[in-house]
Every structure is written in structure tokens, then in C-alpha cells.
Amino acid sequence: MKKRIGISYTKSSFQNYWDWFTKSDLQNDMELVELSFEKNNVQDILSCDAFVLTGGIDIEPSFYGENADYENRPDRFQTDRDLYEQQIFEYSQKQKLPLLGICRGMQHVNVLMGGKLVQDLGELNEIHKKEEADKLHEVKVEKNSMLNEITQSSIGNINSAHHQAIDPNALGENLMISARSHSADATIEGIELKDKKDKAFMLCVQWHPERMEGKEESPFSKNIKERFLQEIRKTNMNKLSVINPATEETIATLNVDSRQSIDEKFKLLKAAQPAWAALPLKERINCIKRFYDLLDTHKDELAKTLTNEMGKPLQQSYNELNGARGRILFFIENAEKWLKDEWINTEGATKEKISYEPLGVIGNISAWNYPYLVGVNVFIPALIGGNAVFYKPSEYTALTGIHIQKLLYQAGLVENCLELAIGKGDVGGLLLELPLNGYYFTGSYRTGKHIAEKVAHKLVPCQLELGGKDPMYVMDDVENIEQVAAAALEGVIYNNGQSCCAVERIYVHEKIYDPFVASYVEQAKKLVIGNPLDKATEIGAISRKEQIDFLQNQMDDAKQKGATLLYGGRKLAGKGYFLEPAVLTHVNHEMKLMKEESFGPIIGIQKVKDDEEAVSLMQDTEYGLTAAVYSKSFERAEKIMKQLNTGTVYWNCCDRVSASLPWSGRKHSGLGSTLSYQGIRAFVQPKAYHIRG
To answer: Order of strands across the sheet with 602-608?
Structure first.
């Protein structure tokens, strides 16, 4: 896999930077990537192994606490570029990746490390400011600097095209001067890290090595580029390939977080959280309101990314975004009510109240099947409550995680209050080793159990939203069998059955069993399977390749034990992970299909003689997430629902989640609650006040 050099886009002479790296330089092991503030392609930052920060117009003065009114200022600043390149710089430091800053890039590094700029060189512009062509002058290189080692020179000729410079009285933290103008002005021409221990290569120069005359021979261009390329070839980033399950094509390659980068991100979260928590609750809610709006503004891009990553039909991606916005709106409208101080006793000598304080920095290890719906259950109320969030999106939907982070910062979230952990399960494991103040996981029972055991000694909140083997019972008094069969089918196949609360087993009263099965199969045969981006598609691709073998194993086991495959179950030929929805009858609880979580568009339909047998079979499970009953009579259905040991029960509906109600599992389906007011208070801790005046 080629190493990638990210070059920040500039509207002035960008091609010069690109062309500086020749085919001979790149050979067969490197490639260039345009990192554009105009495109805001943040995901590409996370794929690069090194970075070049280029020249261009002045940095917006508020970044270093100065006034915007000065001589030679541009007509307009590019604040979007400043913010975007800040992300590049911060990412390079977190991941310890080589960075080369040129002209404006050098000044920006100084600013980002706490330094300031001389806003205009005044008379010295005669030496430094470009007119028709770059100015030329000598530069003096500091002894014992890395730049001196690289150039093997103490004095050299360089080109100049700037009217600003680094303020020598306000050098950024841990920076040293490596070169100055050799004229009397001694303008700073190069900087590097002072303490280089455990740091990546970073060199910044004020001149333009990419376009200087004689750059092919000059050590102030040639040697710098060669050293930069050497440092890049030393990097060894683990890579994560994001695969489109419908085409099996790699749609992105991202850098995987290491133990070091995870530790760095945790430090940033811990340092940033108090400032976010100190904001008034209304300001935090207003930030989330802006995020709510941005999800709608960018819905086309977000939906397409989600479909390409996860394989669900495009309309279902839009539905997920709409559903997530609905949940966010619930938090926006209800958070203040449930997080404000509660006065318990205002009479007598001692008054009493309860306040709700943030936990601190929480970990959110999220799921791939509904990354927006599952994610907002956690990171939205956590942020509203004043916490910082270490968010690990699934490796299957990492690009969606990047979109989420990008839009939250665009909405005004305090910098470094939501950091991403990119990678597979081993990266999630690194989060468990951190001293986080709470752990919130969505996924399998096996992983959830491991997390609970791993963090138990920390005595911090641990919430687990795990799987299910959710049953549906269809009573003999239903009036419209076709309608109920349609509802059951949607409960089974929506999102390709990849839902924690999908219907995974159906029990039907013997009096209506045959017509129900016939209607279910007839409707299943009409489903359109194919390209998830096609509007007509109802069944997209299975998200994980290995899941097809798992589902077929369940079906084979059932058939070997006497089940009948009435329809479907075939893997479609050609590219992509496509599986026909399957219907099996003559099933029983000796079969994996009826006992183990499937997480796919397959179903076993079992005949029962009465309500008592139905309840017995519905209860025969290690899971306890949801259960549905279809009947004309609420009284009859309620009698059954009260007996079911599940966090949610449905009458005449299924596979449904409401922000107003707690979402919780029992037994192997989880621990704790999200959503409702309980899901708001799950991310804060009460403090009791005894107040005696």
C-alpha cells in the first residue's frame, strides 16, 4: 500500500507544490493527496502518512490574538482554511507523522503552537515581499540545528515572497529558530522542534523550496525534500480499508490509531472537557441544535456515504438520518428539564437540592448497523451533559464517524471534546485501558461481557446495548393476516435484518399459520434486491462478508434438523455481499436459527397451539431486548406482554424505538438504559446539597 503525502490546497500556485514531488521522488511507494479546505475532505487527512502545509494569504489574526487592521492585509481572510489546516497539524502531532511547513505553513505552525506573527514587515518588505517575482537573499542557518544537518550549510541563497514573519518575541512552545535572514533584519526563516524526543519530523521554512531557482541542486530545496521523503518512508502506519459491501471495492484507506495516538487523544479530551462543561447548559444545547441542522443540510452526502459503507438502501440511509434528528430533537427539548438543579426541600433551616454534574470523559464504542441512530443515543446526551467523548465508530462505518466529528466541530463543539478512535476491536480494547469516567458500548453480548469484566474494577458507569433474539407472536384473532405478514416481513428484513430489535423468530397460532406463511412468502418474493443506490432497491448488501457464511450455516443446521426452506437463502452471484431473504418452516428450538442471534434477513416461523405455548417459546432465550404481540385484543396481548422478560414490548407493531421511552435490554441483551429522561441522566452524576444559611 502506497504511503500518502497530503498537500494542503492553496489558491496561489498550488501546482508548484504538487510538481515538486517528481515521479522519481515518489517511485512506486508514494502518492500525493490534495487536502482542500474548500472540499473539507477531512477523511483524506486521516489517510495520509505525511503533510505539507503550503503558502498563501495571511492567517486570520484572531488565531493569534491580533487586530485585523494592518498594512498589506488581504481583502478577505480564509478562516475555513485556517481551521482545516489546524486539523492537519493536530492530526500530524497526534499520530507523530512528518510535517513540512512552507512560508504561510511555517507561520501557521508557530501560531498553532501558541506563537504570534509580525503582521507586516514594513520597510523590510523591500527584502522579503514578492513583487513580480520572488525576492532573493541570503539566509544564515543556526549551528546544531536539524536544518544545518540537512543542508550541510551555514549560509545559503533562498527566495522570499512574504510580508509577515514569526514574532521573535513570541515563538511557539517547544520551537527553536533554525534559520534567519542574513541581512541586518534577522527575520526568522526557519523553525523546528526544540525537544525532538518522541516527536515526528517537523521542519518549517519561510522560503519556497518548491519553486526556487536551481531547486534541483540547491541544498535548501533538494536536501530538504530528500530528508522529508526519507522520514516518510520510515513511517509505519497500520491501515484500515473501508469496503463497499455492494461492490467489494475499497472506498477509503484510513490510518489506524496506535496506543500512543490513543493516549495523546485522551490527554486532549481530558484537557478540553472542563471548558465545555463550564459553558451554560443552553449554550451546549445550542451547539447540538446547530449539529441537528447540519445533518439536514448535508443529508445527501451523509446518506450516500452511509449506503456505500454499510450497504443499506439509500432511502433507508435517509430514514436513519431523519430518525437520528428526531432523537436529537428530543434531547434538545428535554435536556434542560432533566439536568437543571432540583430543589427538594426549601423550607426550614436546611435547604436541600440535587445538581447534575458531568461524568468527565466517557468512551463510546459504537455499532455499524445504525451508526447515527445508535451513536446519537450516547454522544448527544453525553455532550449536552458536559462530557467529552472518546468515540470509536465501527471499522465498517468509520467514514460516517468522521462526518459526525466534522459536523459537531462545525456546529461549535469545543475543540478536542470529541476524539475518534479509528480501527478494529484491538483499538477499542485500548480505550478500556484508559481511566475513562464511563463506558458505553453497542454490539454483541460476547464483546459486551468482555468490556464489563475488563472495566468492573474501575467502579464507573458501564452501559451495554447488546443483541437480541426478538420474538413475534401472531394470535388467531388478527383480522388482516396479509397486513400482519407485511409488518412481520418488514420487521425481519428492514436494514437487511441487521437490527438489534429486528424480528428474529415468529410464532403463529395454528388456526392461521398456513395463510400467514403463504402471505409472508408471497410478499418476500416481491422484494427488490440489488444496488443500494437504486431507488427501487428494498434489500441491499449484507455489511460484513463473513456474515453470509454465518447465516447460511444457521440455515443448513435448521435443514439438517428437519426445517423446510420455503424460499430464498441463496447468495447472489457476482460482486457484493447479497443474500436472498429466507423463510424456513417446521422449525424448533433445537435449531440455531431459533436460539442464536441471526442478524440477517432470514426467519424461522413456528406453529403454536395456544398462547401458553407461545409464551413458553418466547421466553426460551438468553436475550431480553424486545418482543411483539399481534392481536385484536389489547387485554389478551397485555396478559402475554406482562409475562415477557424484555426491556420493550410491542402490541401490533415491532422493530420500533422511541426517544421518549427507555431503550434497555435484560439478560444478555444489555445493561442500563439510553433514551428517555433516563438516557439523559445516564451521562451525569447527582450531587446532593445540604444548605444551611
So the answer is: 564-567, 582-585, 602-608, 503-509, 470-474, 626-630, 648-651
Q: 513 and 460, same structural domain?
A: no
Per-residue model confidence (pLDDT) at position 132: 86
CA gap 556, 574 in Å, rounded: 22
CATH at 595: 3.40.309.10
Catalytic residues: 465, 500
Asked whether residue 495 falls in the same domain as residue 368, the answer is no
| Per-residue pLDDT, 412 | 97
Residue 255 domain-assigned (yes or no): no
Q: How far apart are CA 644 and CA 648, in angstroms?
A: 9
Strands 470-474 and 503-509: parallel
Q: How far apart are the C-alpha atoms of 631 and 641, rounded to whole Å?
A: 12
- 377 assigned to some structural domain: yes
Distance CA 612, CA 475 (A): 11
Residues whose CB is less than 8 angstroms from the CB of residue 524 and which lie 6 or more positions away in sequence, other chains included:
489, 493, 567, 568, 581, 583
Tell me the CATH number at 424. Answer: 3.40.605.10
| Statement to judge: residues 154 and 303 lie in one domain | no
DSSP E strands, 366-469: 388-392, 418-420, 439-442, 462-465
Question: Which parts of the chain sit beneath pLDDT 70?
Answer: none
pLDDT of 693 reads 83
Contact between 100 and 5 under an 8 Å Cβ cutoff? The reply is no
- In sequence order, the β-bridge partners of residue 689 are 353
Question: Residue 673 gets which letter from DSSP?
Answer: E
Residue 670 lies in a domain: no
- Find all residues with CB under 8 Å of 274, minimum gap 6, and list them: none
| Predicted pLDDT of residue 183 | 72
Instruction: Report pLDDT digits (tens) over 131-184.
Output: 889 999 999 999 999 999 999 999 999 999 999 999 999 999 999 999 999 877
Q: Confirm whether 246 is domain-assigned.
A: no
* Strand boundaries in 312-405, DSSP class E: 342-345, 350-358, 361-365, 388-392
The tally of domains found in the chain comes to 3
- What is the three-class DSSP state of 603? strand
DSSP class of 221: I
CA distance 428 to 421: 7
Q: Which helix (H) or strand (E) holds 31?
A: strand 30-35
Range of the domain at 490: 470-658
Cβ atoms 4, 33 nearer than 8 A: yes
CA pair distance 119, 485, nearest whole angstrom: 72
Give the contacts of 672 (CB within 8 A, at least 6 positions apart).
461, 462, 463, 464, 664, 682
Residues 151 and 44 in one domain: yes
Per the CB < 8 A criterion, the answer to whether 380 and 233 are in contact is no
- Burial code (b: 16+ CB inside 10 Å, e: under 16) for 456-494 equals eeeebbbbbbbbbbbbbbbbeebeebeebbebbbebbbb
Residues 16, 154, single domain; the answer is yes
Say how far apart CA 92 and CA 111 lie, in whole Å.
16
Query: In 3-state terms, what secondary structure has residue 543?
Result: coil
407 and 522 in a single domain? The answer is no
CATH number at residue 125: 3.40.50.880
Whether residues 305 and 438 share a domain: the answer is yes
Do residue 82 and residue 190 come from a single domain? yes
